[in-house]
Amino acid sequence: MSCVLKRKLLAIDMDGTCLNSRSKISDENLKWLRRAGAQGIEIVPATGRALTCLPYQLKKENLFRYVITSNGASVTDISTGRDIFRALIPQKTAVELMRECGGKGVGMTVHIDHEYLVQGKLLAALGRLQYGKDAASAKALRDIVAYAAGMQSDVEELQFFFFSQSARRRTEQALRHYPELAAAYAGNYVEIYSRNATKGTALAAVEKHLDIGQEETACIGDGENDFSMFREAGMCFAVQNAVAGLKSAADRVVASNDENGVAEAIRYLLAVQ
C-alpha cells in the first residue's frame, strides 16, 4: 500500500505501544497525538482494557470520539455513550465458564457494561500497583460469579489469572468445550472473548461508520492481538518492542514504547500528507 495516501484514521494500541513500561503516555506522544488530531486524523484508541480503565491521560484530552475496548468486543462513541459495534460473550456462557474454572488457584476479572470488575481486594490492589490511576475505577467484588449471574448483561471479556499450573490446565480443558470463544494466553493469565471480537473487526466497524476506506486507515501495535488490525489497516506500524511476527508484518517499524514510537509513526504520517 502506497504511503503517500492521505490517512484519515489512526488506530492505536495502548499498553506496550502508546503507554511506556511505566504505564504512562509520554509528553512527546501526547504532543504528536494532538498534532494528528489537529490535522484531521481520527484517533481511535484500541485496547484490551475496559472503557472505564482507559488511560487517565487520554481521558483529560479531547483527542478521540471512538474507542475500541476489550480487544474488539465493543466500539463506543463516547460523545453519545452508545456502542456502534458489539461482539459479546452470552451471559449464560460466561457464568458457566467462570463456575467451571473458578476456585482454588484462579483469580478472575470481568468486563461487563464497560466496567472492570475484579474478584477480591488483592487483585484490585495489584491492578492499582501496576496501572495506578487508570485502575481507580475498578470495582472489587467478593463473589464475582454471583455478581455476573445476577446481571442482565452479556460479557465483553473474561480474564483468569493462574496461581498454579493445575488452575491453568483446568481452564485450558474447559475452553475446549467452547468453540465460540477465543483465548489469548500471556504469562500467568488468559483473556477470553467472543470469536467475533477482534480489533480488526472492530476497526472495520469504525471505518464503515465513518465511511473511511481501508487505504485511508493506519494502525500501530505491539502484540499478537494487534494482528487483526494489521490485516484491516492500509498502513501498519509496529513498535520496536513488538512481538517478532508483528514487526515482520508491519509496513514500518518505529521506536519502542519507551522511546516515543507513536510520535515517530505520527511524524511519518504527517510528513507524507
UniProtKB/TrEMBL annotation:
Cellular component annotations (GO), alphabetically ordered: cytosol
GO MF term (any one): magnesium ion binding
Domain of life according to the entry: Bacteria
Species per Swiss-Prot/TrEMBL record: Marvinbryantia formatexigens DSM 14469
InterPro entries in the cross-refs: HAD-like_sf (IPR036412), HAD_sf (IPR023214)
Protein's name according to its UniProt entry: Cof-like hydrolase
